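Practice problem. Given the sequence and the SMILES for magnesium ion, write out the predicted structure.
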Amino acid sequence: MKRNQLSIKTIVAIGIGAAVFVILGRFAVIPTGVPNTNFDTSYGFLALMAIIFGPVAGGLIGLIGHALKDAIFYGTPWWSWVVVSGLVGFFIGLATKKINIESGIFNVKKIILFNVVQIIVNAIGWMVIAPTLDVLIYAEPVNKVYLQGIVAGCLNIVTVAVLGTLLLSIYAKSRGQSGSLTKDV
Amino acid sequence: MAVEMLSYIERKSPVHRLTGVTKLLCFLIWSTVAMLTYDTRVLLFLFLFSVAIFKVSKIKWKEVAFVLLFILVFLLINNLAIYVFSPQEGVKIYGTRHVLLDIGGGRYSLTLEQLFYQFNVTLKYFTVIPAALLFLVTTNPSEFAASLNRIGVSYKIAYAVALALRYIPDIQRDFRNISLSQQARGIDMSRKEKLSKRLKNAASIIIPLILSSLDKIEMISNAMELRGFGKNKKRTWYRARPFQKIDIITLMLFIIMLIVSLYITFYDGNRFYNPF
Amino acid sequence: MRKPVIQFENFSFQYRSQTAPTLQDINLTIYEGEKVLIVGPSGSGKSTLGHCLNGLVPFSYKGKVTGSLTIDGEDTQGLDIFSLSKKVGMVLQDPDGQFIGLTVAEDIAFALENDCLPQPQMITKVSEVAKIVDMEPHLEASTHQLSGGQKQRVCLAGVMVDEVEILLFDEPLANLDPATGKYAIELIDRIQQETNKTVIIIEHRLEDVLHCPVDRIIVIDDGRVISDMTPDELLASPVLEQCSIREPLYVRAVKYAGCRLTPELRPAHLDTFQINACKKQLHDWFEKVDIPKARDKTETILELKAIDFSYFPGQPTIHDVSFSIQKGEMVSIVGKNGAGKSTLSKLICGFEKPNAGKIYYRSQDITADTIKERALRIGMVMQNPNQMISKQMIYDEVALGLVIRGVPEAEIKERVLATLKICGLYPFRNWPISALSFGQKKRVTIASILVLEPEVIILDEPTAGQDFRHYTEIMEFLLELNQRGVTIIMITHDMHLMLEYTPRAIVIAGGRKIADDTAVNVLTDARIIEEANLKETSLFELAVRAGISEPKQFVERFIAYDREVRQ
Ligand SMILES: Nc1ncnc2c1ncn2[C@@H]1O[C@H](COP(=O)(O)OP(=O)(O)OP(=O)(O)O)[C@@H](O)[C@H]1O
Ligand SMILES: Nc1ncnc2c1ncn2[C@@H]1O[C@H](COP(=O)(O)OP(=O)(O)OP(=O)(O)O)[C@@H](O)[C@H]1O
Ligand SMILES: [Mg+2]
Ligand SMILES: [Mg+2]
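Answer key:
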C-alpha cells in the first residue's frame, strides 16, 4: 500500500474511533465538582488514536467524532469546537513517528515528549483557536469565550496527561513482544 | 441508559424525497449563512423559513423535543453567561446606549442594545437548529456516506463516517455492558466517591472499551479487506440515489437565498443590523 | 481425476509473537467440489489454518511461513489478498465483526460496491443472493433487528455474492440455537449442491455438522493434521476420543453397549447407521443400567415472580416470567435466539430493572438491591467475553475481583492459580489476553467469576467455542462446586450439555416461560421443541430405531451411565 493512501486499517480506525469518541464524550465525562466543567475522557482516547494511527486519523476522528456527537445528542454541531477537536487530533498525531508506539517502548523520554506536545497543542487549540473562532462566528463576548477556552484547555490537558499517558503505556505493553510467548507449565 | 439520540425517522414527505446530496449541500449553505450573518431580518426570515420546512417534512416536534429541551436550557445558561461577562456587549456593537433599568450604576445596567444583541444570539441558534435537526432525521444514514462521496469527499473517508454511524449503537451497548460487569465485580460507580477514585473507576470501564474497540478495528478491517474494500480508485454505492428535478430546484433556491442573504447582510459593510 | 483446489505442502506458520509454530508440517489436499470438516481442540490452529487460506496470514497476521500453499493451481506467495478473496470466501468466527453494512442489503452488496458494479445490477444480484439464504424480506433491517441466526445468514450471503469457488466457515454454529444451527447446516449443504463449490467447515459441534453429509473430516491437534478420513472411518476409529472431540451421542451409546463400530456400519448419520447389528446389545445394556434417582427438594434460594421487562416502551422483551430455583440445583435456561435468555440473567443480576414483578433471594426481596450488593452472592459470566475483560494480563484479570474485595495477596495468588488450573489456563498465566483464541478468552471470564466463589453462578453460554476436554473440565468443576452447595444456572444452546448436567430446564420462547420440567421431558416433547427452536436428541431416535419401548428411559439411563464412566 502506498504511503499517501489511507490503509483500510486507518479507515476503520477513523470510523470506530469516531464512534468511541462519541460514546465517551457523551457518557464518560467526569464532573470535577465545579458546575459545567468536566473531564472529558474522549480526549485521552483521541490522543491514543492519534499516536497509534497518525495525524490524518487523529484529525478525522476528532472532526467526525465531535461533529456526530454534537449532532446526534445536541441537535447541531458547534463548529468552532469541532474544528479544534480535529486540529488537536491532527497535531498530536504528528508525534507518531517520534514516539513509535508500535515498538513497544514508551519510556520516560517518550512520555515527556508526548506530554509536551499535547500541552502545546491543547493550549493553542482550546485557549487561542477555539475562542477566536467563537468570536468570529458567533460574535460572543471576548472575555467569556476566553475564560471558557482556558478552563476547557486546562481540563483537557490534565485528562490527556493522565488518561492518554496511561492508555499509551498499556498499549505499548501489548505490542512488539515478538517471540516472547511460551507456555510455561 | 436509554439515552435518546437523534436518528433517521422514516416518513413520506418532500423533504425525505430529496437526495442526501441535496440535503447535505442545503444544510451546508444554511449553516454558512447562519454563521456569517447577524442581520436580524435575515435571521428572522431564515427562522420562519426553517419552521415552514419543518412542517413540510411531517416530522413532529414531539419527536425531537428532548433535544430542543436540552438546547433551551443551554441557551438560557449561555445568555446568562454572556450577560455576566459582558453586559454592555450590545452597546459596543451598536454604538448607542438606551438604559432600561439602572442596576448598580453602570456595568450591569440593562440596556436595549444588550437585549437586542442577546435576542440576535438566541435567534441565530434558532435558525440553525431546526435545519440541523431536519437534516439529521430525514437523511437515511446509509445514503449519507454515498452523498459525502458524491460531493467530493474521498470514498474511504465517506465510508469511515458510515462505519461510525453503524457502530455508535454497538459501542454504546458495549459501554453499558462493560460498566455493569465491572460493577458486578465490586467497582463502585456512584457519585459519592472521591474525585480521584471516580477517575480510577472510570478508567476501569474506559480501558476495556478502548481495548475491545482496538480489537474491533482489527477484526473489521480484516473482514473489509477480505471483501475487497479499497481495491479500486472508486466504488459504487448500493444506496446512492439519482438527482431529480426537485433536487435541482431546491438547490437553486438555496443558492439564491445564500446570495441574497449575504448581500443584505454585508451591503452596508457590517454583519449586524442596526435599528438604533 | 479430481482436480485439487487447495494443496498444503510441508506448510508451517509461526505468529511473530510466538516462540513455537502454531501450524506444523501441514500436508493436505482438498479437491474441487468437496465438503470438508475440520475439527480439533480449542487453540489447535483451526482458525489459523483458515486465515492461511484467505490471506489474512500473512497479510494481516504477520509471522513466518515455510512450505507451500497452492490454491487453484497458484502458489499463494504470488497472490495478494484481493485476488485470494476472489477465490476464497470466508465467514468469520464472529458475525458482529463481519456485518459491516448498516442494513442487510448494504452488507450483502459490500463486495459488489467495491467492485464498482453499477447500481441496477447490484440490486438484482443482492436480491438474488438474499433469496438463496432466505433473507429477502429483511433487506432493509439493520443489525440490531436481527437474531444471531439471521446475522449468520447475511454473512453467508455477503461472501456468496462474490462467486468464490471455495467457501470457508469458521464455527458457523457457535451461538446459534439448535434448530437454527440445523437450518444453517442444511443451507450450506443446499448451496454446495446447487453451485458445486468447495466447502470447508471448522466446527466443534461434530454431531450437528454431520446432520448433512460430509466427504472428509480432518482432525487437527496442536497444529498438526493427525487424521484425514471419511466420517464413517473416523467414527469407527479411536481418534476422536484421543484428542478429546465429542462424538455424536448415539455413537457413544452404541459403544457403551459394547458394539464394535466399523466403517461398514455407516455410523456417520443415524439414518444410514446399520442399527440391526447392535440392536441386541442396546437392549441388553438398557436392561442392565440403573435408573437415576431424583434429588430431594431443599430450600428455595432464588425466586422470580411475574417479571415484566422491556428495553423499549411498548415492546416487551420479558413477559410474566416466574420460577424458583432450589439451593444446590443445576438448571438450564434454553430457547430460541433472541428469546430473552440473556436479558433474564441481566435482570437477576440487577443489570436491568424489571418493569413489574419481584425477585427474591432466600425469601428476601432483592428487587431494589444494587448490582454490587447482588454480585456478592450471584456471579455472572456474560455471553461476550470481551465485555468482561478489563486487564491486559490473564493473571490480573482473574485476580481483579479479589483485589477489589481486599483479599490478602498470598491468598489471592493461591486461589487464582488454582482456578487457572481448573480452567486449563495455567500454562498461559503470564500471557496477555490479546494472544488467546476465542474459546480461551471465554475461559478467562469463567475463571474470573469462579475465583470469587459466589453462592449462585449464572453462566451465559459457558461452553460456546470450547472443545470437549475443556468443556468436560469446566463442567466437572461446576458439578463439583454444585455438590458443595453452589447453585448453578446455565444459559445454553447445547442440548447435550443440558441433558448431561442439568436435571431441570426452563424453556423461554418469545419472552415467556413455556416449560419448566426435567431436561429429558423437555427434549422429548415435540411441541416444546418446535416452539423453542430446540432439537430432539439423537439418543431418543436411536432408542426408537432400536425398538426400545421406553426411549425416554433410555435417554435418562444413558446420561446417568455416561456420567459415571467419565468420572
Ligand atoms: N494473533 C495472534 N498472535 C499470536 N498468537 C495467536 C494469535 N492468534 C492465535 N494465536 C495462537 O495460535 C493458537 C491457535 O489459535 P486459533 O485461533 O487458530 O485456534 P482455534 O483452533 O481456531 O481455536 P478455537 O476453537 O478456540 O477458535 C492459539 O494457541 C493462540 O494462542
Ligand atoms: N441492550 C439492549 N437494548 C435493546 N434491545 C436489546 C438489548 N439486548 C437485547 N435486546 C433485544 O432483546 C431481545 C432478547 O435478547 P436476549 O439477548 O435476551 O436474547 P437471548 O435469548 O439471549 O438470545 P441468544 O440466544 O441469541 O443469545 C432481542 O430481540 C434483542 O435484540
Ligand atoms: Mg477459531
Ligand atoms: Mg444471549
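Check your answer against the key. Chain A has a mean pLDDT of 87.
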